[in-house]
Amino acid sequence: MDKKISYIVKNVAKRLLPLSLLTLLPLLSSCGEFFEFDKEDAVPAGEMILGRTSVDLMIGDRFEIPVSFAPSELSNEEVFWASSDQNVIQFDNNTLLAVGEGTCIVTAISVSGQFKATCTVTVHPMWSLNPYNYAYDMVFYSDITVHGEKFSDDMYVIAVCNDEIRGIGQAKEEQGIRYVLIRVYSNFSQGEEIKFRVYKRNSAKVEEFPDAITFDGESHGSLSNLYLLTIE
Known about the structure:
It is elongated and about 60 Å long. A hairpin with a 2-residue loop joins strand 12 and strand 13 (164-174). The protein contains 2 helices and 18 strands. It has helices at 3-15, 21-29; strands at residues 47-50, 54-58, 62-64, 67-70, 79-83, 89-92, 95-98, 102-110, 116-124, 136-146, 149-150, 155-161, 164-174, 177-186, 193-200, 205-214, 219-220, 227-231. The strands form 4 sheets. Strands 10, 11, 12, 13, 14, 15, 16, 17 and 18 form a 9-stranded mixed sheet that branches. Strands 2-9-8-5 form a 4-stranded mixed sheet, with no helix packed on it. The protein is mainly beta.
C-alpha cells in the first residue's frame, strides 16, 4: 500500500473510532488490503435434552436415560452422570442402578461442561403385602393392557387403597385363557376405594389405571368375561 494512502487510512480510522466496524469496513477494504479483527472463539448455541424428566425404578433394577443434543452436530458429546444420593442411585457408565429406596436427582453433564440436564428418580421397594393382616378379600379376573401392550413378565400390577398395597397381580392361564388374578384385601367388608397401578420395568414408569372400584367382597370378571384394566 502507498505510504500516503496508508497514512490517510490510519488518520481516518482514528477520527471515525466511534463509528461501528460495519461503517469502517468498506473504507478499509477500498485500499486493497484485508484487515482481520481478533475475537474470542464463538461457543456454539445448543442444548442437551434428556428423554425423561422423571423415572421410577424398583430396587435392583437398571435403566439408561436417553440423551440427545441440539443441533445434531453436538451429538458426539460424551456425558458424565452425578447422583444427589449415592444410597439411592449409582451408575454403571450411563446406566442408572437402583440401590436403595428413596428419591434423588441425577444430573447429566456434557464432557465440555457446557450442557447440563437433570431428572428426578424414585426408587421403590419391591411391592409386597401380608394377606394375614386382613379379614376380607375379593378377586379380579383381569385382562390388562398398558399403552397397547398386554400384561407380561416385565409388568407388575398392584391394587392400592390410600397408597397401601392391598393386592398383587399374578399371571395365570386356564383352559387356554391367559389372565391376571388380583386378590384384593381389606379389613372392612365393603366401602373402601380400590385403585390399580402398574410398574413397567422396560420403561421405568409407575402409572395408575383410570379405574377405581369400591371394595365389596365379591368376584369381578370371569374366564369368559375378564375384567378390563386398560391404560390407553
